Amino acid sequence: MNIVLLSGGSGKRLWPLSNDIRSKQFIKIFKSENGEYESMVQRVYRQLKKVDPNVNLTIATSKSQVSAIRNQLGDGVGISVEPCRRDTFPAIALSAAYLKDVAGVSPEESVVVCPVDPYVEEDYFETLKILSELSDKGESNMVLMGMEPTYPSEKYGYIMPTDKSDVSKVDSFKEKPTKDIAEKYIEEGALWNGGVFAFKLKYLLDKAHELIDFEDYRDLFNKYDTLTKISFDYEVVEKEPSILVKRFNGQWKDLGTWNTLTEAMEENIVGKGVQNENCEGVHIINEMNVPVLAMGLKNVVISASPEGILVSDKEQSSYIKPYVDKFEQQVMFAEKSWGSYRVMDIDPEAMTIKVTLNPGSKMNYHSHKNRDEVWVVISGQGKTIVDGMEQNINAGDVIAMQAGCKHTVIADTELRLIEVQLGKDIDVNDKQKHEL
Amino acid sequence: MNIVLLSGGSGKRLWPLSNDIRSKQFIKIFKSENGEYESMVQRVYRQLKKVDPNVNLTIATSKSQVSAIRNQLGDGVGISVEPCRRDTFPAIALSAAYLKDVAGVSPEESVVVCPVDPYVEEDYFETLKILSELSDKGESNMVLMGMEPTYPSEKYGYIMPTDKSDVSKVDSFKEKPTKDIAEKYIEEGALWNGGVFAFKLKYLLDKAHELIDFEDYRDLFNKYDTLTKISFDYEVVEKEPSILVKRFNGQWKDLGTWNTLTEAMEENIVGKGVQNENCEGVHIINEMNVPVLAMGLKNVVISASPEGILVSDKEQSSYIKPYVDKFEQQVMFAEKSWGSYRVMDIDPEAMTIKVTLNPGSKMNYHSHKNRDEVWVVISGQGKTIVDGMEQNINAGDVIAMQAGCKHTVIADTELRLIEVQLGKDIDVNDKQKHEL
Lengths: 436, 436
Hints:
homodimer, 436 residues, alpha+beta, six-stranded antiparallel β-sheet, 21% helix
């Protein structure tokens, strides 16, 4: 089965765990079968692999997520990198070109496209397989997954099938309705549109070429920033007369706010935390290394990370975005392809960072115009290359680097460094890459 | 006026701001007239100086508070250091010997002893002056301050005066009563015992010599650990027939819990914090450098420090101690005579600390048996002495010190360092002092 997961943009609705560069799908918050915490994207990948060990998985995403994906999923997945954000039609068109030209998928094969972030069980992925098989049969140009509504929601679009059977033809699509109208739709057998589409790769390539003037993947990639922002639903699905919909009535949750996310958590406390016996419905999600103590709270979510601390009534946790938008945020934690870093201290002319490199990984060979750096190795083994000079490093070694000096570090084992950046104009974008 | 402030032990009832080495009286939480935050001890000192610019102030406290007192109050106060904790009678006896033998106070002068932590206004200190003057007159051996009760409290001891006049003779003392009995006492004119005593220094020295076998201050200091733990009320006050009590009906608050402390705060937010419009009665006291966002909470106190995060219903904030006792706490922040330090990261074999030295201050010349250290200077000027070698230092300088090497740093301006400690057995007690 060919799957394209659409891994959407960053968001602040799960601040302080999600932010400008860290999206909710990468937060390790769900307890997996082996007792370790996994992120949404790791959970989806594990579930997919179980349902189809040979799945050909491609993640369509922005450049800013590539490091986190490689770090969390390894090299076994394809990544169709969007040079900039252009909504779902351009993203799906680009991933179609990627599948054909980079991954070598035959245009006759079916592809299933779905969002990366619904919180689902294995039956969802079994249903993706059925969608793929229905697409293989070629009885329609497209197959959708329709979620059985559990209440007359005003926040979903509705699919109107021609009848109430398990697989039906689609009659029409309806915009987000009012509650009364939603009730009427549901009586008629309407389904929520879950944003899951299956089709032959050829179908999508034809649509893409029809609507965008491009030659191949590379060409489309290069002109991506000139494309119009438009959704796949609007540009393709709602204009397509030949669509089937397969009903799905398993678990399907949108964990976009703290309120919904905590409902899906198996444990009330992730990280260091204690609640007294007078707490009810309290969730603590703590990424800090010090404890959170909750006393006598009801229906409250507490989340702490190096970016900040949220304490919110669960109902009101849906409304944090405008407040978070006003925070001047220094990114305090980031996953990189080589590991991760955490900002520990910001002084007017210095920044202190803890850097953790994964075994076998290395940074780019780079320099900075406007800052000196000092590395103090605190654990592990590896080597540094500084202005072409190689040096083995161990705990206790100190490497001082002036502005302009080219440097990298290569980890043999897991390697941890304290990095002190020094200068008047410390800026994360002050980084020049060099050939080694 | 001679004042002895009893600066009591550390406590966890205001965790995460107070802990094993940082007592509540040093938390900078009250807005002073010039708009800066001050601690209880700074507030009391400022108020005292205003009422009596020539006050001779001595603080009776343990060794662990000396650095914080010097850092917050400077060198203008005397400190009677208790070698260990032995309750209030030995502490007051030691401070009496200190006043005579170290501070050179005449035995004929009056001394007023009071706790360091009540939250009061200037009228309280004016009343201390009246107590001192009443003591000067010599009409009784001791003068107490009696607080006018505002409710039949079960948590205070009561002073029973012979009548209801402003200054009366004391008839008897009553232990903490039940509410019904407290009501009866109050009808009879009883007053709360506020722990404020005035007497001639001679009186106290005589009592001390009568009850303890010692020669002078040095001798008492040296045998301090052999003394019995006993309160001054029990050992002296309750046995003394000649006592006057002066009524006081001004503000007098015990800010021992978050609930009472937040009542005394003028602002709902100290540090970085935001509350949405649905918060009511919420206090945020945030010592971290990242924001706290509170949404839709009622009567909750949120406090964050490098030690941890408390989120508590205000009523229940009185009950945090047993929970905090269970936390394995690394001290993450401490005031020292030369400045302060903050632990930023703890790794199995490394600890990273931010050190701030006040202008003109210096560390002891010292070494460590079991750890190497690296200093990276991030701002300011000064010099280091390492194994006898002096070196001027500026931002960007790196000093690497092997275990056993003797070192100190001297700050010309405010000086900030990142210190990385390295070793298998990093221990705050691994410190050997040397003569320079």
